[in-house]
Design brief:
It is a single chain. The chain is α/β, with parallel strands linked by helices. Helix content is 40%, strand content 26%. The chain folds into two domains: 2-78, Ubiquitin-like (UB roll), CATH 3.10.20.80; 89-173, Translation initiation factor 3 (IF-3), C-terminal domain (Translation Initiation Factor IF3, 2-Layer Sandwich). The protein has helices at 2-9, 35-44, 66-83, 100-115, 134-147, 177-190, and strands at residues 20-25, 31-34, 48-53, 60-64, 89-94, 119-125, 152-161, 164-171. The strands form two sheets. It has a four-stranded mixed beta sheet with strand order 2-1-4-3. Strands 5-6-8-7 form a four-stranded mixed beta sheet, with helices on one face. The radius of gyration is 31 Å and the shape is rod-shaped. 18% of the residues are buried.
Length: 202
């Protein structure tokens, strides 16, 4: 399907209906040629004439094997797609008077999000008169950012937007995941149960 859509983007050979074209290619002398001559040059080389810039004056055509050209275009699109990876933003919500158990639970989730490369948007939601505790909410968010400093850096300091105070954290490259996993595995390695095989009855 993708190849079909690519094919529709480019006119080749007899489908190019203009009087003259500017030729480019590996074994071609760049210049403007009548369409009939350009087609003959491509044919003599066992190649195709592919229109790559239809809006130029005159249109630019490349002498190339069409299948090879499609492969190159597909590869380029893949590379561009890989570079423009979508950034995922995970939201974590607090109340202005979040208890330690709830805080630690959400902190653990945030570490996981940052380790997998997602941004974290943490906010304190102020309901009704709880807006009076906005300073308390700011302290909570700054504590949250501080506890995550090995995993992410602050992209935006706490800002009050309506009834929400928001902080944005972006993952640190290569930080947190490797060191944290090593630390997490250490206790398991040292606290293995004693070998009981030696005490098996004979």
């Amino acid at each position: 399907m993708k190849n079909d859509s690519l094919k529709e983007q480019y006119r080749i050979n007899e489908r190019i209906r203009v009087r003259e074209v500017r030729l480019v290619g590996d074994n071609v002398e760049t210049g403007v040629y009548p369409i009939a001559q350009a087609l003959k040059i491509a044919e003599d080389q066992g190649m195709d004439l592919v229109e790559i810039s239809p809006n130029a004056a005159p249109p630019v055509c490349r002498v190339i094997d069409y299948q090879k050209f499609l492969y190159q275009q597909k590869k380029r699109q893949k590379e561009q797609k890989a570079k423009s990876v979508k950034v995922v933003v995970k939201e974590i919500r607090f109340g202005p008077q979040t208890d330690d158990h709830d805080y630690n639970f959400k902190l653990k989730h945030a570490k996981g999000f940052l380790e997998e490369g997602s941004k974290v948007k943490a906010y304190v939601f102020f309901k009704g008169r709880s807006i009076l505790f906005k300073e308390q909410g700011e302290v909570l968010l700054l504590r949250f950012a501080n506890d995550l400093e090995d995993y992410g850096k602050v992209e935006q300091l706490p800002v009050l937007e309506g009834k929400r105070m928001i902080i944005m954290l972006t993952p640190k490259k290569g930080a947190g995941s490797s060191s944290a996993s090593k630390q997490a595995k250490k206790p398991e390695a040292t606290s293995k149960p004693e070998q009981k095989d030696e005490k098996k009855p004979s």
